[in-house]
Every structure is written in C-alpha cells, then in structure tokens.
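WARN  no MSA supplied for this record, continuing single-sequence
INFO  ligand: DI6
INFO  echoing inputs
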Amino acid sequence: MWDELWVDVRLATAVAGGDAFGLIERGALGVLGDALAWVGPAASLPAAPQQLARRVTSAEGRLATPGLIDCHTHLIFGGDRALDFDLRAQGQTYAAIAAAGGGIRSTVAHTRGASAAALAEAALPRARALLASGVTTLEVKSGYGLDVASELKMLEAARLVGEALDVEVVPTLLALHALPAEFANDRAGYVDLVTRELIPAAAAAGLARAVDVFCETIAFTREECARALAAARAHGLAVKVHADQLSDGGGAALAAEFGALSADHLEYTPESGIAALAASGTVAVLLPGAFLMLGETQRPPVAALRRHGVPLAVATDLNPGTSPCTSLPLALALARAQFGLSAAEGLAAVTREAARALGLLDSRGTLEAGKRADFCLWDLAHPRELGYWLGDARCRTVVRGGRRRADAGERRPLSAR
Ligand code: DI6
Ligand code: FE
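INFO  complex generated
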C-alpha cells in the first residue's frame, strides 16, 4: 500500500528517449515514504486508486515536473554587492572593481566577520525564495572565506540551511575563488594552503562532496587550478570548474582532464574544449544570470555544445556579485531568451541534467519509480511554459521527499478525495 497516490495530473517526466518532455497526459504518481513507487498513465494503474494508497489526492489537472535542481549557487555570503552593481552601471568593469578591492574580496570581509549561524540565518530568505520557485535540491559553494576556518564555516552554514529547511544541500568547496589579500604576494603559498590543509580538512570533516575552482585571468591559472583539482581527486572528492567565463583560459579542457562533473559558464570555450567535455561526459552548466548582470555579449557556444552532445544544465549562480537571482525558473527563462535553449532542453537543464551535474542522476532529476519523490505542480498548460513566464513562475505546490511543503508558498490547498 502506497502512502499517497496523485491522480488527475499531467506529467512532464523529463525522462530521456520518449517525446521531448517525457509527457504523460493523464498520469498518476504513487509515493511510498520519500520515494516514487509508481509513475505512469493512470489507465495503467494496477488497481483502483483507493486500493493502492492510503490517501488519494487530485492534482486538479496541474502539470507535474521533477523537482527543480539548482546545481550552482553561492547561497552563503556576508553583506551584499549592490554598490558594485551600481558602479558597473556607471561604467566600471567587474575586473576593475575587483582589482580596486571591491568584488569578491569585499564579500570575503563580510563573510569572515560572521558566524556560521549568522551566515545561515542571512541565507534563509534566499533559500526559501529558491524553494518557492520549485527547487528541491540545491548545490551550495563556499569560496568567500579564503582561509581554512572561514571556508569550513561557510560549509557548516550551508549544512545548517539544509537542516533548517529540510532540503538536500549539496556542498561544494570552492577552494580557489579569489586570492586573499594576505597572500597578495604569495600565490603559491595560498595554493599550498588550499591543497595541503583546506581540501584535506574539508574532506576529513565530510563537509564537501566536490571541489570547485575559478579558472580565470582575474582568479587562478590553469596550473594552479590543476593542483587543487588533483588534491580533490586524491581525497576522493568530485571536481567542478568555473571555466572560460570572461576569457578562454583553457578551463573546459582542464575540467575534462579531471573528469569533472561539470564545467560552468563557458562563454569563451573554444571548440577543442567542447570536444573534450563531450569525451569526458562533463555537464555544461549555463549561468545566464551572471551573463545578464555583467552585461556580457559573448554567449556560451550552445550550438557547438549541442552538436558535440554535451549535456546542458542551467543554474542561478545565486551570488552577491554577479547573479543575485533567487528563482531557477527565471534563470531558465533568461537561458532560453539569451542562449536559445529550446523548451525541452530547458526542462532537462533544470532537472535531469542538473542532477547529472551533481552526480545525483540515480536518485533525482526525473519522474521515475525508485527516485526520490521530489516534484512540483505548476499552473501551466504545457511544459514549454516553464521558463517562459518572467517573474511568477506559477509553481503552486512542491513535494519534497514525499511531503507537500508549506515553505514552497503553496497558493491553494488541493482537495483530498
Ligand atoms: N564566477 C561567478 O560568477 C561568481 N564566482 C565566480 O567564480 C561571482 C562571485 C562574486 O562576484 O562574488
Ligand atoms: Fe559561480
């Protein structure tokens, strides 16, 4: 006997191979505990609904998708960077602001000065907004601490947010993000600290599943990043790369070399880097919020990524400096509008491929029996409307781990039958 059976529901399962969205028009979802026990057309249910589940709930014809997965966020940070944004509007560049001591380093000062509890508290409204937009799993990076204690504190804050909201937070140690001021004349010393102390400490504490690096002229070189990624591998952690965002720094090829789960941004990635990503099975994570807010004009090479068969994901990149975006459907709309993703690519990009980018495809990302019962009900006539509405995404109900969640801002209770 299942705990709950959802009927009168249209399913966009995001399962690959069928029609573009994995559509099942008159569907049903059986939930047992925190998992999906049954997914398919209602007409194929093995018995009458009341015989199958303790509770039968009508979705009133709404569209169900897999719970959205935000696979790239910098949710935890102190302060904000509204001033940077205003300076950029007045003509200053991201790189110039960073070089003048604003940028990431100003966030570092605020982050170092706050406790893990205070950082988590400040992040809760942002996390709640993400959940209300349909997110059921989110990745959270460190990277604004830049010393061993502060980086671990950020990861602890990420854990606290997950605990407070009862949501899966996938923690990533963003080990090389910016050079801290105290190492301004000792780059190698900072990379030593990261490889010899920070990565081992995060791995030993079980506070991170992956290590990320910012491979960029204003951040770290390919060689420096390679040292950190090698250390990550040696400690059994997955790897990710902020690659080729502002220039072609060989970031995508580096990600491929280390078998990265994902390479993110990719605006300046050349064809050779794309071929390398395809060969390594690395997911390309597109971050249209940063593209928009930085006023970038060089788009990521979506057509070439598609041609090479690189899986495409989209994430908010929620961060104070370049993407203060707390809605994944909004990020999806930006990706569709700015980068030309199709509606079907878009649905996959925030569900199945985002799960792949976190190494979680076996348990999340599609509506299939055996996966976690994470799904959203939308007031949408067709899945092509996901990432079409700008602003209200029309997510009406979120079920996480089998349970309907009030924190997702449910608008109207659904009737039990
Ligand atoms: N790329 C980004 O878009 C963010 N980090 C990164 O490496 C920006 C972080 C910030 O400006 O605070
Ligand atoms: Fe980022």
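The first helix runs from residue 49 to 52.
INFO  checksum written, moving to next record
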